[in-house]
Specification:
By secondary structure, the chain is α/β, with parallel strands linked by helices. It has a domain of 69 residues. It has 9 helices and 10 strands. Strand 5, helix 7 and strand 6 form a beta-alpha-beta unit. The longest helix has 18 residues. The radius of gyration is 29 Å and the shape is flat. This is F-box domain-containing protein.
Length: 262
């Protein structure tokens, strides 16, 4: 009887123990924010953006810690995809598929404007813009112009640095002219600007520490065309401390057209 009683007591004890729910652990708001901020600091942007889906606090922290402190923006229009492997055969696509990267993340052409709008609406200030153009497709350049329009329309943009890379000649982007005009007083560095774009956008408001010009916007233009644009640039009132120049044709530094401005 004693043994049975002890066994029953043990069973009752086990039952009561299993019936007790495990203790709930609550993290303070400050502790959670610290965790989310650490993820924002050390994780790739794609993972950081996924963090927004955890809860409302995570979303607020990402918007504040990752996006608002972001001041640099990189847009790349890659060479479009023209072929797709189906089974064991390579088939040509009816229309080339745009390749668009924003902050090194690839997007469909329909999603890229949405993501850019998200960034611009949460940034405190955009001060540096890098645009890399590899495609010559008219549709891709139209997509790029749409993205640049968003930047032009944003009141959070005050560029001090503008960098442009073009893979092929003959690409004149009018939005670059508008960007330079709008940020003339704040720009300090411009790299890869076409000479026609510079001739149209430069004014006495421009004061740069570094300027890099190229003739990719005019392609294989005549020397007269290039010199005419250089005259407009030199007479615009713009000032710069360092100048580099890239051209498909040579530039004779002893030519009278080459002027040095203090």
């Amino acid at each position: 009887m004693t043994t049975a009683g002890a066994s029953n007591n043990q069973n009752d004890s086990d039952a009561s123990t299993s019936a007790v729910p495990p203790p709930q652990i609550y993290l303070s708001r400050d502790a959670l924010i610290h965790v989310f901020e650490t993820v924002c600091k050390y994780s790739p942007l794609s993972n950081v953006l996924d963090l927004r889906l955890v809860n409302r606090l995570a979303n607020e922290t990402v918007n504040r810690a990752a996006t608002r402190k972001m001041s640099e923006l990189k847009i790349e229009i890659g060479e479009p995809i023209r072929f797709k492997i189906v089974g064991l055969k390579m088939k040509e696509l009816p229309e080339p598929e745009p390749v668009i990267y924003i902050q090194n993340l690839r997007f469909k052409h329909t999603d890229a404007p949405v993501f850019l709008h998200y960034l611009l609406s949460h940034m405190d200030k955009l001060s540096s813009l890098t645009v890399h153009i590899q495609s010559t497709e008219a549709n891709d350049l139209t997509i790029l112009e749409g993205l640049l329009d968003q930047i032009l329309d944003s009141n959070r943009v005050k560029l001090s640095d503008l960098q442009i890379r073009r893979r092929k000649g003959g690409q004149r982007i009018s939005r670059f002219v508008e960007l330079v005009k709008k940020n003339a007083s704040s720009l300090k560095t411009i790299k890869g600007l076409g000479i026609t774009e510079a001739a149209e956008s430069f004014s006495e408001k421009i004061s740069l520490s570094r300027l890099s010009l190229m003739t990719h916007d005019v392609g294989l233009a005549s020397e007269d065309t290039i010199y005419d644009n250089l005259i407009e640039i030199s007479s615009s009132g713009a000032r710069f401390s360092h100048l580099s120049y890239t051209s498909f044709i040579g530039l004779d530094p002893t030519d009278d057209i080459v002027q040095v401005r203090n």
